[in-house]
Amino acid sequence: MILSVSSVFITLVITFLMIILFYLILFNKKLIYILRSDLLIILSFVIIIRLLLPVEWPYTITIPFPWVMNSLQAFLNYEIFSHFSVISLLLVIWLLGSAIQICKFIIQLNKIKSIFAVLDKTAIKNKVSDFIDIDPHLDYPVWITNGIPSPMILGFKKIILIPEIGLEKKEFAHIIQHELEHLKHKDNIIKLFLSLVLIIYWWFPPVYWLCNKIQLVLEMRVDKKVTYYFSEQEVTDYADTLLKVQKAISSKTETSFDRIGISSMFYINDGTSTLYYRITYLLNQTYKKSSNILLILIIVSLPLISNCIVLEPCLEPPIETYSSSPASDLENGFIVKHPDGSYSIFINGTTKTTMDPDDELLSKYPVITE
Q1: Which candidate, 13, 63, 114, 174, has a CA 20 to 30 Å from the CA of 184?
Q2: What whole-number distance in Å separates Cα of residue 10 and Cα of residue 72?
Q3: Strand ranges across the sheet with 367-369
Q4: Cα(354)–Cα(285) distance, integer angstroms
Q5: SS3 breakdown of the chain: % helix, strand, coil, rounded to 5?
Q6: Which residues on adjacent β-strands are paired with residue 126?
Q7: pLDDT 10s digit of each residue in the chain, 370 long?
Q8: pTM to 2 decimal places
Q9: With contact defined as beta carbons under 8 Å apart, do 117 and 143 qualify?
């Protein structure tokens, strides 16, 4: 694996295009009912993997692309002052920005710890089994409290948090099932993982576009899991519960959770802004179908396909940097001596690189000094 400016550049281009594809599928009414939320989940993971592995592989083909890469290389290599180029400055800014993001991440974790310390003293504590029949290994704690604005999973804790709002038994069951699916699929861990991606790519706006909409796709997946075996009437009842919860929490006053300022990347909750889209999706019965396996395989293969090429600058070497030999002397073979002391040996169509060619080879074949 080789990490280079060219490999990072092609990674940014490819991931930008894949994020555009993600948005196109999500917000096109025809495409979302054909390709569905499970494919979007896979596509988002593919994008993240591509971002985390911006490297050239052994099978990567180098393509000269002077129209863009030459100008990019010249810009990055421009020396601002002695031995300090533009690329050095950008790397310093990148690292400083990432360090600041790490500090913010740690601060957020401390805020979550403080919130749980408060809730531990004030919440009404139950378990999932108090509301629905459940396997013992999924019998997570359920805390009912006025200290949070909406039902949520917060941080790494496997605790379902529900605000004190007037819900009937059936409605409570819907909310518990919903939050339980988030825990079963480790959606809270996924969002924290996305926070780590943002630490690295804090300067790349398309990553924020992706992270902002992954919450919606996670909610769509959970809605599908909860209602998969529901009748049409039960799906409608579930949608009514979501509306009732949103109406109840929209009238709540500011909570201690709101005042402490925890980033939405650190919790899973049901946002008002996505509710209309989710309910519209739910009421279309085709949402229960799975995506075509061939389409999923194509999506999974995208990182491999996108790593097949890398664009490189193409510069003609100055003629004065080479010593020359008559063409007739080079027909059977020749040796190129590189500035780093290594040698490339070309003999009858075969090549090899060495640091110390035999004296016999040096005397037999012409040597071209680079």
Answers
A1: 114
A2: 12
A3: 350-354, 343-347, 333-337, 367-369
A4: 66
A5: 60, 15, 25
A6: 142
A7: 788 888 899 999 999 999 999 999 888 877 877 777 888 888 998 899 889 988 888 888 888 888 888 888 889 989 888 889 999 999 999 999 999 999 999 999 999 999 999 999 989 999 999 999 999 999 999 999 988 888 999 988 999 999 988 888 899 999 999 999 999 999 988 988 899 899 999 999 999 999 888 888 898 889 989 998 888 899 999 999 999 988 888 777 777 787 788 887 777 765 566 788 888 888 876 667 777 788 778 877 877 777 788 888 776 555 455 555 555 555 667 778 877 777 788 777 677 776 677 767 777 778 877 6
A8: 0.77
A9: no
Which has the closest alpha carbon to 216: 284, 279, 285?
279
Given a contact cutoff of 8 angstroms between Cβ atoms, the answer to whether 346 and 315 are in contact is no
- Output the CA torsion sign for 232, 235, 239, 244: positive
Q: Are 219 and 274 in contact (CB under 8 A)?
A: yes
Considering Cα of 318, then 324, then 330, then 334, what sign does the dihedral take? Answer: negative
Cα–Cα separations (whole angstroms), residue 334 to 142, 231, 271, 355 = 76, 78, 69, 15
| Strand runs labelled E in the chain | 61-64, 79-81, 84-85, 124-127, 141-145, 152-154, 160-163, 267-269, 309-312, 333-337, 343-347, 350-354, 367-369
Q: Using H for helix, E for strand and C for coil, what is the string for 191-223?
A: HHHHHHHHHHCCCCHHHHHHHHHHHHHHHHHHH
DSSP string, 8-37: HHHHHHHHHHHHHHHHHHHH-HHHHHHHHH
CA dist., res. 336 & res. 297, Å (int):
46
Residue with tokens 């310390």: 117
In order of 15, 208, 291, the CA distances from 47 in angstroms are 6, 12, 18
